[in-house]
Protein: S-acyltransferase
Amino acid sequence: MTVFEGSLVQPSSNRAAGSMPAIWQRFTATVCSVLLVFVFLYYVDVAYVILPWYSFTVPGMLHLMLLSASTGLALRCYFLCMFTDPGRVPPGWQPDAEQQAAVQEVKKSDGGARYCKKCNQYKPPRSHHCRVCERCVLRMDHHCPWVNNCIGHANYRSFFLLLVYCSAALIHSTLLLLGHALHLVSSSANSRVVRVGPRATPHTFEEDPDSHVLWHIGLQTFAFAVALPTTIAVVMLLVWHIRMVAANKTTIEHAEGITAQIKAGGLGADKQRHPYNLGCVHNGLQVLGDEPVLWWLPRSSATPGGLAYPTFLDSRALGF
Ligand SMILES: [Zn+2]
Ligand SMILES: [Zn+2]
Structure:
């Protein structure tokens, strides 16, 4: 058996394992602002860009369908992240003394079984105590204030898909706003008629340059100023989590540098390898589900497991 150190045991506290707050309590100011950005960008893109610019043409309908699909799927994933319990440790759970696991996580302090003094219970592998949720969370990745929930075993997949669909919707939205701005500038320079606003009102810049055309341009400029930095941030986060999925690692595990602790435990030729890294394909299957054709689908069904995970030493025994 190989032993490696997990997280430090949390300081003592009398707080019991936290329960999920009521639905209305989930809608914090941060959550409401995220939802407002969703609605605002979608509305400006549809009412002020797609319909006035493309009208009900084939390209216009394609843009409308793609943007609606990516925004709808992103919203579905967002609410799944918000309302799915990330996974809690069953009451009375204890490490299985009979289990001959190839790798076990232990306390750094004395090498014993990981125990949460705040929840007064043992901690399964990859679980951590969240100070915001006030309980231990299975395969905890991080606590996300943007969805006001922990991201862990049962909702990590929804979180990953949220980043994928958000990135797609935001890139699409940003390019539409940029393209339409260039179209307006070009029309202005050539004194062409443009159609603006939800009613697609025909307008030239010469006849009334201070009119509502400038208001539309200001609104779209503001939307672009919101969309561009949001797009950059979300895409960067997506790239980070693609790395995490490919390595079957959580953000906490990355931060703690478990691989360095494995080195201390000594795993021969695999000293540097993350214990749950089963290879890129098997990592994807484990994190996103074993049916790749369904990876794109946001699902609310209960996620089994969460108390134990195969390691690369197990995978050798299993022959993959
Ligand atoms: Zn705990
Ligand atoms: Zn939390």
User: Anything to note?
Assistant: Confidence is low (pLDDT under 50) at residues 1-17. Residues 116, 118-119, 129, 135-136 surround zinc ion (ligand 1) (CB under 6 Å). Strands lie at 2-5, 103-106, 115-116, 121-122, 128-130, 135-137, 142-144, 149-151, 194-196, 201-203.
